[in-house]
Specification:
This protein has eight helices and no strands. The chain has 255 residues and is mainly alpha-helical. 27% of the residues are buried.
Amino acid sequence: MTDTTREYLEATKSETARPLTAALQKRRVDFSELQPKDPKFRAHIPPDHHPDVLNKDDGLVATAKGHHALEVLWNIHEKLIQTALQVQDRAKLATQVEGHVLKAIKNMREEIAGLDRQHEHHTKEIASSLGTGVGQLQAEVRSICRDKPEGERLAFVRALLAAGDIDSLKAIAAVSPVLSGLDAESYAYVREEAERLVNPRAFAERAAAAVARERCARALADFDSTMAGNIARWRSGDDQKIADLMTSLEPKKDA
């Protein structure tokens, strides 16, 4: 084979290879497209939902319950996120963990209901401690307050607070403000201060139950809308891909 012939064959081989290579390049599967993609997937939990937002060492039962409920939900949420970042088949993950997600939501709802019951229980305790406000002495205290000029009634009540006169405060706080002549804002202030004085423990527990309940409700709403939403998308997304595949495999009917 002469040098000229060899050069011709090499040139021909190179030129015929180029179109074939380009065609193969076009048919090459881009495997990066097979990686799970979900722009709505959030790979973190807002720190506002961490259990330590509640100080479990404050000695209050409601706080401890709220902390525990947040801790359980946080741990489940965190594990689900970590696993979702590691697996390729998120549709399979969605199918397998959906029951656990629903259970976590159910459990947190029960915890919130428990905090509501605690709040109601302590509210009743406080009301019992305030009493009914019925009696001659109670009526006289309210009469004194009502007979004062409107601008002096709150000052009268503040004086009772400063003196620690719980019985007189109960006489005003236990009944409608109409009987003492206080406006709505002043009465709300007196009622709160009287409740704090007559049953400080129940007052603190009720406040803690309200705070814990609000924190748990927010964490649950976030978990429900994000993780439960993820599961629905991952599962339905793959279902649609499979349905599209099956449609494409069906023999085409002549028009």
